[in-house]
Specification:
Blueprint: H1 15-24, H2 36-49, E1 54-58, H3 61-72, E2 77-82, H4 86-89, H5 94-98, E3 103-107, H6 116-124, E4 133-140, H7 151-164, E5 167-172, H8 175-182, E6 197-201, E7 211-215, H9 224-230, H10 239-249, H11 253-273, E8 279-280, E9 288-292, H12 295-303, E10 309-312, E11 316-320, H13 327-345
Parallel strand pairs: 2-3, 2-4, 4-5, 5-6
Antiparallel strand pairs: 1-7, 6-7, 8-9, 9-11, 10-11
Helix pairs in contact: 1-10, 2-10, 6-7, 8-11, 11-13, 12-13
């Protein structure tokens, strides 16, 4: 079975993250984050964002999103996010669980992006005590549909949030892909345009495990370390969560890996778009390609060993590229697409 395009989680550990973990595996160091690797990783994140921020390392994205949202809310509050957002569709209720009941409110917007007017409408539609009070707006960068917010789009949402007294959370599981796509300093589309806390993804960009929760407004991180401990996210051998970040962030390795995944998605989308039977559903800004294809083609590709997921309706499929996706793999998939389509469109033999 070929899992190349099933998810960016199916790829292995990149050499830089692996080497950093191996380097950290020498001697004895303090536990629970009091080690030099954790300090180096935290300081490097501050350098990347050009901000004196608080940094915490957790095991996975569900914990990063859920605990950070819980730190911004009381149980009677609500979080507004896009109806395609991961915190709504794929966290198994963890944000609600860790916040003791904070409600998720869904908002629309084209191409997986929140619409500022829709956000304001939802946040202001009720103000009575019987309704969970809006407290946070959560945006996903890159989005679940493979698109990327531009700085002015984030600023527009942040302006609405500030006017209404809402904090701004960013789910950055694929933040590296967004950064590579935008080609801007990370500050330009985070804290400078109103983001308060970022969940900075490492796993999908070549690390074995690990996400960084970055509080740009340090006062919002009060007692976050206790939340991590209570939720089973305080790693005793923290250096092995932190060290890969050192390997990834030095010399902009994280951006290069994100850029490769994006470039392979673009190559894949361009190849698919040549076939009239296929339709690219959303702009390909990052490392995901969403394509509408006949069910017969999807079945034929799966019979050839390719694994990928249905994501939008009956005929919308998601193809994800990763840090290690190569042109040869993309071209092999495109070759099979062409072969399968040729078989489908071939005229049946004439029967005399």
């Amino acid at each position: 079975m070929r899992y190349d395009f099933a998810s960016d989680n199916t790829s292995g550990i990149c050499p830089e993250a692996w080497a950093a973990m191996e380097a950290a595996n020498h001697g004895r160091l303090p536990s629970y984050g009091d080690d030099t690797w954790t300090t180096r990783a935290s300081d490097r994140i501050r350098e990347v964002f050009e901000r004196d921020c608080d940094v915490y390392f957790v095991f996975n994205g569900t914990a990063a999103n859920s605990l950070s949202l819980a730190s911004l809310c009381q149980s009677y509050h609500s979080v507004i996010c896009h109806d395609q957002a991961h915190v709504e569709r794929d966290e198994c209720g963890a944000p609600e669980f860790f916040s003791n009941g904070t409600k998720i409110l869904l908002c629309g917007g084209p191409d997986g992006k929140l619409d500022p007017s829709a956000l304001e409408s939802i946040a202001t539609r009720r103000s009575d005590i019987h309704f969970p009070k809006p407290r946070v707006v959560s945006l996903t960068q890159a989005t679940e549909l493979g698109t990327v917010y531009r700085p002015h789009e984030i600023a527009a949402l942040s302006n609405v949030a500030r006017k209404l007294g809402l904090a701004v959370h960013m789910d950055g599981a694929r933040f590296a892909n967004a950064a590579a796509s935008l080609g801007l300093p990370p500050r330009a589309f985070t804290w400078e345009v109103g983001v308060d806390v970022l969940c900075f993804g490492g796993t999908k960009n070549g690390m074995a495990v690990g996400e960084a929760v970055v509080f740009f407004r340090r006062e919002l991180s009060a007692e976050f370390d206790y939340r991590c401990k209570q939720a089973g996210q305080l790693c005793s051998k923290m250096r092995f969560l932190a060290a890969p970040w050192v390997g990834m962030l030095e010399d902009d390795v994280w951006l290069r890996h994100g850029a490769n995944a994006n470039a392979m998605a673009r190559r894949l989308a361009d190849g698919l778009a040549k076939h009239g039977a296929l339709r690219i559903l959303f702009p390909v800004d990052a490392n995901g390609v969403f394509v509408e294809m006949p069910e017969t083609l999807a079945r034929a590709l799966r019979e050839r060993g390719w694994k990928f997921y249905n994501f939008i309706g009956d005929r919308g499929y998601r193809l994800m590229c990763s840090w290690e996706t190569s042109p040869d793999v993309v071209d092999a998939f495109l070759s099979d697409v062409a072969t399968c389509l040729a078989v489908e469109t071939a005229e049946p033999p004439h029967v005399g």
